[in-house]
Design brief:
8-stranded mixed β-sheet, FAD/NAD(P)-binding domain, Bifunctional 3-(3-hydroxy-phenyl)propionate/3-hydroxycinnamic acid hydroxylase, FAD binding, Glutaredoxin, FAD-bd, alpha+beta, 14 helices, disordered C terminus, 510 residues, 26% strand
């Protein structure tokens, strides 16, 4: 008899591991299948913002990620002669969510943290070196997942109530859904170079972006002794042209200066094609797409991996609620309705930044030299460049907002510090919550608790109170992923509209 599990996650990268861990925190049994024997050892993604750092903290990795990450101090725009056009500085201190707003890291180190952390959850099984060969659903019943052990050749099958396709740009699950990746008309070939060195480069601790159609480049420090460069490849060039350090060093020299070549350890040289693509459908009945299976984002704003973790955080609690019966099936319709427009907006922003920095020929360089320094002096523009807040989610069954009036619904509630020194997420711990500018009555507290949630006061003078006032709200209902479901002024009504969400079973707290 074919075994059956509630959820199969295809792919054990950061998105798949995050989804599985969040589901495990709600007591959901998961089987994670990954075709590779172990973690891919080469660095890929290097940036997470404070919104996605917050997701890692919910997994229980707040301190662990802090130990392997490196705060980024902003963005410096440079012309082809390495003259600074503008510098947008941010501090390394915590932002609205309690974490630095830009964080650099080494992806293999993050993946090791995620896999080690997953072992704390007995409801999740990770099977590596296991190739998924078929994902098939027949009508409304469970999904059949066929797989092969790549060592022994042994074949197996499992039935799943739901399957999450976290299997990357060449997704098998996407093929099973019949989804198409729409080309959003951005494609550039880049050389990516990762270097380790004990030498001090003595460079400013932010991202350096060389704005040059002839040889656009990016430099960033990603760890105590780790650095990354990205150079746009010219017509006819390939990564093989730069595997010899003698050919590569002239590209690095503006930053490495007189540091001997022998002091630079080349960790990786690779060619990447930066693309902008978005799947037309993210779901077919019991199949879902997450991460690169659903979207590909150019790297200019560092949001590729962030988008995948947001997918996992958005879907996991909804799936847990449907599985335990505390949320209706149609709650899952909100996943694509919320995440697809958000991902599309972030891809559009990355395209805009990439185009502004890398195109326009010589006239573009002249224009940047004249305009960028002037724009950088505008306080409003500086705030926009440095603000890590991403757009509000669109209306859905779980984001209730008027069409013509600005509201906090769909926005991420700040992970603000409370009176006892703890932050909001530590108190809420994966439940629904009502945040109120005025104290809740015993009856209102009781109603929220009866529905599996809680009420939290935001006294005058606190960050949460200011946030409510700026949003013209007396109170808001906040979902388990931190997103505002609805905002209003009638606290009793808001408490009565809390979904009866299932119990949070995690034994530990963030």
């Amino acid at each position: 008899m074919t075994p059956r599990v509630p959820v199969v996650v295809v792919g054990a990268g950061p998105t798949g591991m995050t989804a599985a861990t969040l589901l495990a925190q709600h007591g959901v049994e998961c089987l994670v299948l990954d075709r590779w024997e172990s973690i891919y050892p080469q660095p890929r993604a290097v940036h997470l913002d404070d919104e996605t750092y917050r997701i890692l903290a919910r997994l229980g990795l707040r301190e662990e990620f802090a130990a392997i990450s490196w705060p980024c101090h902003g963005l410096r725009l440079i012309d082809p002669s390495m003259r600074v056009l503008a510098e947008f500085q941010r501090g390394a201190e915590a932002g609205r969510h309690g974490y630095p707003e830009a964080n650099m890291f080494d992806q293999p180190e993050l993946e090791r943290l995620l896999r080690t952390n997953l072992k704390r959850h007995a409801t999740v099984t990770l099977r590596c070196n296991t190739e998924v060969t078929t994902v098939a659903q027949d009508g409304p019943g469970p999904v059949r997942v066929d797989f092969t052990d790549r060592d022994s050749g042994t074949r197996g099958s499992v039935l799943a109530d739901y399957v999450l396709g976290c299997d990357g740009a060449n997704s098998l699950v996407r093929d099973a859904i019949g989804a198409t990746m729409h080309d959003l008309r951005f494609e550039q070939r880049w050389l990516v170079v990762d270097v380790a060195t004990e030498a001090d480069l003595r460079e400013w601790e932010g991202v350096h972006q060389v704005c040059d159609p002839n040889r656009a480049a990016t430099y960033m420090r990603v760890g105590r002794h780790r650095y990354r460069w990205e150079f746009r490849l010219r017509q006819g060039e390939t990564a093989d042209d730069y595997r010899d350090i003698g050919h590569l060093h002239p590209l690095l020299a503006p930053w490495t200066g007189d540091i001997p070549v022998e002091a630079l350890e080349i960790v990786r040289i690779a060619e990447y094609t930066f693309r902008a693509r978005l799947a037309d459908r993210w779901r077919d009945r019991r199949l879902f797409l997450l991460g690169d299976a659903a979207h590909l984002t150019p790297p200019f704003i560092g949001q590729g991996l962030c988008a995948g973790l947001r997918d996992a955080a958005n879907l996991a609690w909804k799936l847990a609620g449907v599985l335990d019966g505390s949320l209706p099936q149609h709650a899952l319709d909100s996943y694509q309705a919320e995440r697809k427009p958000h991902a599309h907006a972030m891809i559009g922003l990355a395209k805009l930044i990439g185009t502004a920095m890398t195109r326009g020929g010589k006239p573009g360089n002249v224009l940047r030299r004249l305009v960028v320094p002037l724009l950088a002096r505008m306080p409003r523009l500086r705030r926009i460049v440095l603000d890590s807040e991403t757009p509000a989610l669109h209306r859905s069954g779980l984001v209730v907002r008027p069409r013509l009036r600005r509201t906090l619904a769909g926005r991420l509630c700040p992970n603000a510090a409370l009176d006892d020194g703890r932050r909001l997420d530590e108190i809420v711990a994966g439940r629904f919550a009502v945040i109120t500018a005025s104290p809740a009555s015993p009856a209102q507290h009781a109603e929220a608790e009866r529905r599996g949630g809680l009420c939290i006061a935001a006294p005058a003078g606190t960050d949460l109170h200011h946030w409510l006032r700026r949003g013209h709200a007396q109170a808001v209902v906040v979902r388990p992923d931190g997103t505002v479901l609805r905002a209003g002024r009638d606290l009793t009504e808001l408490c009565a509209t809390l979904p009866r969400f299932g119990a949070f079973v995690r034994g530990d707290r963030p």
